[in-house]
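Q: What does the predicted 3D structure of NAD(P)/FAD-dependent oxidoreductase look like?
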Amino acid sequence: MARLVVLGGGVSGHTAATFAAKWLGSAHEVVVVTPNSKWNWIPSNIWVGVGEMSKEEVTFDLAPVYAKAGINYKQAKAVSINPEGVESSDKPFVTIEYTLAGREGEVENVEYDYLINATGPKLNFGATEGLGDANGLGEFTVSVCTADHAVHANEEFQKCIQKMKQGERQKFLIGTGHGMCTCQGAAFEYIFNIEHELKKAGVRDMADIKWISNESFLGDFGVGGLHMKSMGFAVSSKIFAESLFTERDVDWIIGAHVNKVEKGKVHYELLDGSMGEEEFDFSMLIPPFAGVGLKAYGKDGSDITDTVFAPNGFMKVDANYSAGSYENWSASDWPKTYQNPTYSNMFACGIAFAPPHPISKPMSSPNGTPISPTPPRTGMPSGIIGKAVAHSICDRILKGENAPLHEASMAHMGAACVASAGKGIFDGTAAAMTIYPVVPDFEKYPGTGRDTDYTFGEIGLAGHWIKHILHHLFIWKAKLKAGWTMIPE
């Protein structure tokens, strides 16, 4: 019997674990280690953050789902990996620390034959003074990164609405809280849901809404922007985004590195090196991401963390990490199999793998401060990669260790994104976009780097209905209900 251990139960880890359990059957063991007791459909947290959904509608208990799937579930956080075992045993293992009520702090070594690192990111609030610290979110801003954060965000948002109804004008500041953030899309969705809800509450005229982001232009989204077909024309995401912001009367600050947050005020540095301040009554700022801090040790107990992980804490895979400057970047730099180059039985997927470099062109201020988005690895690509990695490992277990690995390069992969701009059966809107490939290939597609026949976008009510349907479909799939394997990632 082989044992596959999956670290993390988010979109990528959950996808990998559930498919592996199905393909391997009871002859082999799948273990999931995650510190959380609930699964969270994170894309819908933006609706929890404005009171349009409850926490219970975007989460469910993992234990019964994993019991049904025959997965050995350990509610714990991974602490370290010993990929060579120890001097007394060659068996590799991961050290975990339980978070389960009643077993908090209990440590266990879990041996494995294959390991998938799908821990997701550490929400690095501590990278920006005042945004938070090592323990999490600070006291001056809100977040929609977790369901609990989103509940808190809505509580603060409702207080603002009440103040506006009493005649007190409010300033809203939404965006990214550091020069090296990713996930601009989540902030993009949240700012327009805020705007939509204020309109529904009849207080839009009492609100000043502003976007602040590390993007060098609106519509970069961490993928260097895109050109897409819309209503029969090729439109840049910059024009698409600027039109939407102007139409909704939302002002913007771009190319900004937020370097300090105080009560009611942020301080930032712009790409031209100038410094600025912006006041707010309500602010949601996405934090930068980092690896979760896993350590790795050799057989003799020596620290080999630098061998297994990149400096940002994400696991090294089969990417080209020596591409150098932007002019040398190529689509072929991006990983295909997500296998660790040193230990062939370890893989990483979702946000946990170390990308070779950003997708957007890197920029910095004259002061040397890097201000540009880091590459997104969430949503649809995260699920596709998780499934491909599970497929590779299952083949090696069932067919032999020389079975070919499955590939899922983001440079060969298309993705669909439905970004909500307001929730409502008859007045909701969302921007529905496809992008192919996610990582531009300027050799294959000179000019834009992407195939414009498969890169398109529209905004409207139909997009909102699609977003709402996808919410229910993906939760159905994650709960492993009838036909779940038929629903694409």
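A (community wiki): The structure tokens above were generated from the sequence. The CA atoms of residues 92 and 137 lie 35 Å apart. The chain has a mean pLDDT of 96.
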